[in-house]
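Pasting as-is:
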Amino acid sequence: MEWITRLMEALGSPGAGLAIALENVFPPVPSEVILPLAGFTAGQGKISLIAAILWTTAGSVVGALVLYGLGAWLGLERLRKVADKIPFVTVSDVDKSDAWFDKHGSKAVFFGRMVPVVRSLISIPAGVSGMPVLKFTLYTAAGSLVWNTALILAGYALGDNYELVDRYLGWVSTVVLAALAIAIVWFVVSRVKARRS
């Protein structure tokens, strides 16, 4: 928390944007902490509210593009080769996921930007599937703008109590992680049963 405050004090709104860009790629400090803090800082008159929203949205896009680039570098063919060597995963799984993303990728990127944990990860399949970079950037920017604005305004309105945002949204991250863990366990168990039968 202290490094984020120092970053904003030193660089102003661009500091908040830099923190969000880093959070997208290395998420030890979630946006649920950074964005309300930016709103609180804006409420104190130290940075501009509008600038905080714009810079953090730009930071979200930059961070997302790094992961998109990672997905694009990995690519569908390389992912197929990797899948062929992973237990319980088949090339068919990769192809089905790619087909799903081709159909629903725009919505997945837009709404995914508003879901903790998914917010960063959604950029990778977008890159793998070859979603046009301009399209990806626009949907990422739109989804990030909604999420960032909501959390910054919450921090701005709550003032000294801005930490309540993270307290109330923290459970969402826990639920998402639990759902992912359950999905992975279900997937593995179903594959084991299928192989035995």
